[in-house]
Amino acid sequence: DFLLLRWIILSLFKAGVNCQTPTQSESVMKRPGENHRLVCTTSGFTFSSFWMAWVRQAPGKGLEWVATISHDSSELYYNQLVRGRFTISRDNNKEQLYLQMNSLKTEDSALYYLNSALCSYYGFDYWGKGTTVTVSSATSTGPTVFPLSPCSSDSATTFTLACLATGFSPASLTFSWTKSDTALTDFLQYPAVQRGETYTGISQIQVKRGDWNKLDSIKCLASHPAGQSPGAFVFPGKKGTLTCEVKVNKGRVEKIFWENSSGKEIAGSQLEPGKGKQSTLFHTIDITYEEWSQGTGFFCVVEHDNMIEPLKKEYQKDIGKKTRPSVFMLPPVEHPKTERVTLTCFVKDFSPPEVFVSWLVNDEEAGSEYDFNTTSPVESKGSYSAYGQLTLSFDQWSDSDAVYSCVVYHESLVNTTKAIVRSIGYRTFEKNNVVNLSMNVPDTCKAQ
């Protein structure tokens, strides 16, 4: 009997169970006093032979049994918290389990699971996917969604992509990912974290390094009871464009094309200008991030009617020594006439010159109500420096709870910290609370 029971359990683990709401959404929001019905469709095992149950888990709490129904519906059992309001039922012909929830209360907010109650109450042996039910009288607010920078070490075989959703309420949120409009399922979604009256959520997915440059697009979308996020956010493959600029003073350019580092013409790269007037011509070619970062050379070749030999110009990144930047948050500058304040992030002593500076407000991307810019890098004795600035109003700056952070990304940081963060918060103009912190991100960004 023990072996037979174990075989049944293992068989059920292999069976497919698909649990969802009638709208096929994994989350639903209801107001107190409203009703809702959960429907779970099963497959892959003899549904009519087993007792079934509903179990729920409220945010931050343990599992809680809700109701159980026998295989033939002759016996029904309820948790006293839901007795009289909830009704469990089943349709063995359709292989469906139901939970009718009436007069919902805020304490009914939870993730509801289907559970096969084999051997009556002796144990929980198989779990459904789960459906989130949120009961709240608060106004529902949709998320703002944006992508985070791809993360990988030089030796890793995968890239980790992340999608951040902020400012939503209630906590019910479901991420989805697509690759070239095909749904992806192998991703992680972390529990939402509350900050004030809203929540922040994050999702991660890994992409093989070999596939990265072949991808047309990867999109992240967040679904919420208040509505789907406005548009998908695209993680494009790591590609760039080289542009060859040709200024024509006299004569005519007959042909422009690109050659690789071996001197062979790149297929499809040929341009033959028309017969019109020629002054300045442009010709582009797409390259991958790996080609550029590894110093692969490309030649722009120009054939002119006054030249015996074509003119060649090489385009190649200087992959000299990489120097890690030093980052300093400078004291704020007050502009009384405009009632504005400027925060400055000073980035110095880095090489190569490519650097990216972004700003966060309370750990969220600075919105359009803020003005921010980064100066072009200035070279001095082989290294570079730049300034990132954020301009805000007096009222925004005087918020004692607000924290403003500049985030500096540089290729020299890939194997160490990935980014450097400097933060400042308002206290008084005489005594500013300036905090210089480094955010250390592990070399490998794989989720544990």
Describe this structure in words.
By secondary structure, the chain is mainly β. It has four domains: 2-135, Immunoglobulins (Immunoglobulin-like); 144-235, Immunoglobulins (Immunoglobulin-like), CATH 2.60.40; 239-315, Immunoglobulin-like, CATH 2.60.40; 326-436, Immunoglobulins (Immunoglobulin-like, Sandwich). The chain has helices spanning 2-14, 209-212, 289-293, 394-397, and strands at 17-20, 27-30, 36-42, 52-57, 63-69, 76-78, 86-91, 96-101, 110-116, 131-135, 144-151, 158-168, 174-179, 182-184, 187-189, 193-195, 198-208, 218-223, 233-235, 239-247, 253-259, 280-288, 298-304, 311-315, 326-335, 340-350, 356-361, 364-365, 371-374, 378-380, 383-393, 403-409, 419-425, 433-436. The chain has a six-stranded mixed β-sheet with strand order 2-10-9-4-5-6, with no helix packed on it. Strands 11, 12, 15, 16 and 17 form a five-stranded antiparallel β-sheet that branches. The two termini are 39 Å apart.
Concise synopsis of the structure shown:
The chain is mainly beta and 448 residues long.
Key traits:
448 residues; mainly beta; Immunoglobulin-like; 4 domains; 6-stranded mixed β-sheet; 5-stranded antiparallel β-sheet; disordered N terminus
The number of E-state strands comes to 34
Count of individual helical segments = 4
Shape: elongated
* Strands in their spatial order, largest beta sheet: 2-10-9-4-5-6
Strand content: over 45%
First-residue to last-residue Cα separation: 39 Å
Structural class: mainly beta
Number of domains: 4
pLDDT averaged over residues: 77
Using the coordinates above, name the CATH class of the largest domain. Answer: Mainly Beta
Helix content: under 10%
